[in-house]
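Handout, tutorial session.
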Amino acid sequence: MAAADQDPHVSTVRPRSYQDESYLHGFLGTVGDLQKAGVLQDVVLEVEGRRFSCHRLVLSAASPYFRAMFTSDMAESRQKTVVLQGLDAGMFREILSYVYSGTLHVSLDKVQPLYQAADLLQLDYVRDTCSSYMAMNVERSTCVDLYTFADVFSVDIFLNHCLRWMYKNFAVFTSREEFCSLSVNQLTEIISHDELDVKEETTVWEAVVRWVQHSREDRQCHLPSILPHIRFNLLTSDDMAAILEHPLVREDPGSSEVIRNVVQKGNPNLKRRFGMTTEMALLYNAERGSNEILFMNPLEGKYISCRYKPEDLPKSKAMTVTSDNNIYMLETKEFEDQNQFSLFKYNHTQNMWEHEGVSSLYKGMDYDMKNCEEHLLEVDRSLYYIADECGPLLHMRKYNRHTHQWQECSQLQFEKRISSYSATLACGSYVYIINSEEMHRYDPSQDRWCRRTLPMNIQDVCTAVAMGAEIFCTDEELSQTLVYDTESDCWQKLQGWPNPGNLIEELPSLFVLENQLYMWLTCRGDFQNRYRYLAYVYDRSVDAWRDLKATLSDEFYRAYGSQSTVARIYLPNLKGA
């Protein structure tokens, strides 16, 4: 029948594809049964004198190493018995068990040789699983051994995990015998880092002394190369005098000269170690004509006000703290049809804002800067500027450190937007914007926005903050606080929010200090004070908020953006502390 003569009431039958899930799951089990029964095996692998009968096809499917061996012109492709070098027989048995079953058994006593075998045989899953297992088991007794292993095999992610553990537990770590087994290169790498959790630089000096004296005859010669990594300029004059009189230094003219040269050169911008600083949230005084920034840590009861000269403090509401603890502020100004962007960086040592030498002009920007909510964020060591008109479009720029220009990124087009409230933040390698109607995520690697699951029954999302892989947010009336899991794209409601008992004057602000969630509220005061401030910390174990009894003057403080900016600060450097 011709196509034109077909009955229009007869539907066209299209072909379909079907996938048998039970077959997919059962196939590997069948292959494993054949191996156990010794059926259809066509090659014998010999490891340390032990013989393992196997199937070339199965090995080739599981490992690029075997695929190259059996499908090339190599002699092994024609041999009935192949001898494998550089493998442990016990570990190879574990590898075969994984190849034929898909199940991997890992323990601390065999994880390193198992990783080595997987690395040789190019089994990515086994190698990555071993790396993750070692990362989960970094502790006092295993740290040096695992760190050395990661260093030898260049497992960067795991190596960084070991280093972070050492930085955080430096005092405990250096008191153990395993610390003295470090090589000189490993020692200098560790003590060079800003992230050492030490209160005083003398702790670093004492660790170096212990390492050298463990084998003084062999290690004394390394001291001049180690000493420049100690921050002698952070020590008191008394501590310096004691170090110069120490036998290791006094008896070695070379070491004494190195120390004096380091001190003489000086470094006014020398960074303090992690443990010497305190995490502080930064607020700005919104009173007209004020040039004040408030540094606060409510849990420790620290509230430090710093006032700057008008010309020394940028007029900005967009601030961010980068992963290396640099604080940036963006000042924007309008000039007819142009907008000027000036980037400022905080000098921790001098407690002042310095112009970064960036002043870029944008022409043809089709939005009104005066009516925009501005945000400055860091994602994967790049700065992003976001201008939110509270309308259908969200504009974003990325700062190019090489050209000192702001490059345009993909605009976000909202499908519907009723509320003017939203929260913009960075979490992991993405940028998120959340409001009551939509939630979107920006992927910098693809310059693309995508929709995510909308928050549950929340009217006006006004503040949000990231902690780990989770995002916490709340609304203007504190009707509920929600937590979003970025990995599963799911929301959960938090309970236990207290009634502050005061009429809230300003939008609440969430922030994270020392991996704890905080809420900052500005409420109307009594007849004597215009404002009253409340600070709460959230205890997730009991799902409850605790009032920290904040006591402040009645100045009008606001957060930079939809969350309070948090940085690590060396408190003695703050003027007026």
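The second record follows below. Compare its token runs with those of the first.
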Amino acid sequence: MCHVCCFSIGVDPDTGKNCTDKVHRYILVVAHHQIFRSRNNVIMAVADIGLIGLAVMGQNLILNMNDHGFVVCAFNRTVEKVDRFLANEAKGTKIVGAHSLKEMVSKLKKPRRVMMLVKAGQAVDSFIDQLVPLLDNGDIIIDGGNSEYTDTRRRCLTLKDKGILYVGSGVSGGEDGARYGPSLMPGGAPEAWPHIKNIFQGICAKADGEPCCDWVGEDGAGHYVKMVHNGIEYGDMQLICEAYHLMKDALGMSPDEMSKVMTEWNKGELDSFLIEISANILKFKDTDGQPLVEKIRDAAGQKGTGKWTAISALDYGVPVTLIGESVFARCLSALQQERVEASKQLKGPASTKYSGNKQEFIESIRQALYASKIVSYAQGFMLLREAAKIFNWTLNYGGIALMWRGGCIIRSVFLGKIKEAFDKNPHITNLILDDFFHQAIDNCQEKWRHTVATAVTLGIPTPCFSTALAFYDGYRSARLPANLIQAQRDYFGAHTYELLENPGKFIHTDWTGHGGTVSSTTYQA
């Protein structure tokens, strides 16, 4: 009989006899509890990682980790959810639960790894405050939510002073991605990466056998890259909607017809998750047999990451125009009731119907979508490059394209070409200067312009098609009319200007003859 069993029934483990001495028996019982606690501590520290948050993403990520052989300890602020999860979705797995943060931490192997999938903002800070007293130097906290990168930078710095390694990781792919392989974009304390690498690269999506996850960079780099990913996602979705709008209103196509077109598009250059699901959505029927998409209210929601991308672009002076327009398009859609009233009073062209060759115009729309998509991604990577300069991040742009190649919402064949471009020239200033993308835009340019011009003529709004073309034309222009802007600024505010023959030297002109020679300070706002 083992020592624990002997102690539990008051048997002397050395003699095997029942102990009748009360003091000796008491000593045996105390010894039993000490050994049980000691052994129980070993047994309890079974989990490879703890995960806080049992909403859809959290549950699916836990199940994914379990499938790949990692033991997860699940916790939720509403502890009843833990019990329900263990009794249902996690039944028959190695997943363990906890009813308090203290219990969860006690079940984690060292260094302890705790991942949060909770609402961004105060909820993250609250859990961090509760976790820190329970953790030791070198333990790791991972935020897998859509936190603002500025918050992640602040938390990294604060927790570094307390000896805790902090990671802010983008997680993309939605419910299905979390369950079967998301795209993961971790950044923060570099010392944490060796301790989470096998878990993250084990559970993530794979593209051509390569994991769609790698270390992004210091402090807020992971969440910044995820933010730009989401901004590009906004742009991709709006571009597809503009194609849908043109086919529907200009060509009078049915949802089934449009679904077939997008299914064909998904076999070529536009092969992507968002084109695929758009084709599926368009052919989906409601219980009455009618297309469900046409019954959905045309007012788009948003959670803020696209807006954050646009704000960041404005802060750092990068012309990420397409993502900005996609955010404003959602804002305009939200004015649904105003638009309904305005439609009764404000008139456009007499007809919104296209009178030319239907198949040729469908091809024009496809090429406009492809060219605009190239511009959108080029702008996104321009923003990443500028942020890397500002925060001194060493970003692997080809690696980021690979992380987005599978698992995430913007996954597409297209991203493989972006990786190839950066592999060829890691220092390329803009993707549209790469030979492949340069040639692709050249090939699409005529039909792209025809699509935008036709949309304007018919009164069908295409804000992202149009702004992408305007950016392209602006970027390829050796001279823009900003010289007049500078003259205007100097005229009314003495803001100075530079001459072409002497850049870097700012001068002021007394344009009116009575303005004086004093000029304003030159600075960038």
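Points raised in discussion: The chain has 21 helices and twelve strands.
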